[in-house]
Design a protein that fits this description.
heterodimer; A: alpha+beta; two-stranded antiparallel ribbon; 28% strand; B: mainly beta; Elongation Factor Tu (Ef-tu), domain 3; eight-stranded antiparallel sheet; 23 strands
Amino acid sequence: MNNAARRLGDSLRKTEDQLVRDQLVATATRINATAGVNGQIPTEITRTDVDEVVKTLMGNNAIQITDSIDGSLKFGTAPVRQAFIGFAHTDLTGSRGFDQVQGFIHKNQYPSGKNDSKYSEWGSIGNARFLVSSVGSKATNGAGIGVDLYNIPICGQEAYAMVRQDGYSAQFIYLPPYLSGPLALTCSLGWKMRTVSRILNDLWIANLRVTLA
Amino acid sequence: MDTTILQQGRFTSTGVSKLLAIRSDVDWIKVYNLTTTAAAGAGTGISFYWQRGMANGTAIEESKTAVTGASVKSVIATGGITLTDTTITQLLAPQTVAGVLAGGPPVVQTGNTAGLVAGDTVLLSSIVGGRQLEGVIDFTIGNVINNVSFTLANMPAIVAAPAPGAAAVYRKVTYPSYWYPRHRFICVITQAAQAVVTTTVDHGYTVGQSLRMTVPAAYGMQEMNNRQVTVLAVTASTFTINVDSTGFAAFAFPLTAAAPFSPAMVTPIGEAAVVPYESLLDDATINTGVLGVTLAAGVDSPAGVNTNVIYWVAGKSFSVDNQ
């Protein structure tokens, strides 16, 4: 029962996560990566493209979400700028995604290591930090045959919000065997939820679209 | 609890496939064609059955023999019943593009237009000489000439790409984004006292809706970039906005040499200051995703042919064992 509840909890939050991501991708302004060299439309992510998004958001008076992190004396670390937050697919980790970008700082190079980063964070590029998830937005063959397309919504503070329903968000529902069948052989466990997300200011969010290098 | 009936309903066939929205993830469905069942023996399908474990697009069909009217059962491998989730944007198999003519609208030449009808949405890929049509910009198609060509209905004339390369393909988009109303890509903005905007895919916006215009430098008309506008009038593919663009720089869809570039687009935002808000359909965050099944149309298919009256009942099984 505990194991099932744990897995259902994961399912619930992933579903919620995916709904919000899909909404951000569906409604936010798109900026194609154009400075790469892979010949695709859009190209692979580059520092120039991230800077373009940052410039656009700052030009719209969006406020960055995380504070800067001061440098330390530890070898191999680097200070991290204050940043907007981007939500990316796990495919973009590694040398065909973020790691090949000029100025990329992996989270293990942050001055205080894990203390400065989120669990799902991969790293930062300029004034953007990126969280990755397996339910990040990906359109298989979206940019051509054999070329997958990735959406990276990059947000400032208060760009969007989850609206809590009055006294109701999610429920786990357990029906014991004597309520689930005439012979009381099986039970059921499930969840249901209501969720509403809203983009509060479309100027404070941009969807950077990229392909792999 | 076993084989719980979730939902039932009826519809009159229009001769095209039918999407049934069925809650709670259907496990089985039975479909009855009332019209053919009541008719004398005609060699047509009268009932269909599908359950999880069977391949998508298949069904067990019961049909009448043409002469005696007796019923016989068979398995149909295509044209049956398909589980559908419209929250997943599906791209159908790529089809080769032989050429793109400048037109006005442009004409896409292809040897395979199977399944395409006017109003469908397509994506183009790897169009050498016409790369401005890529970049995941989708297009509503217009006139379809079977296995010859189709037009990009809303697009202005372009420089032709007569030999677009061996890799050039189009793909049909079965379901667009499930959030309504959707952002759209812009292909024309006029210079007028009330500018008229044309989108590459029919937009679905309503009068009074608030929109944000995004116009990258590659398109010109930078005065329009980032403007919040209100829709004054609509047609299927155009809408008039409350912006005087007569003095603006011209808007021009980029040429192939400009690729890659970011698309010009329009994004629905906010709500109109008019009550009742809920009936305006102008909120940018309405989830229109549907889970259910798609019934194929045809003489031996569950959605039948035009004017057939169809009844259906769908259910959920407490457990599914497909071992």
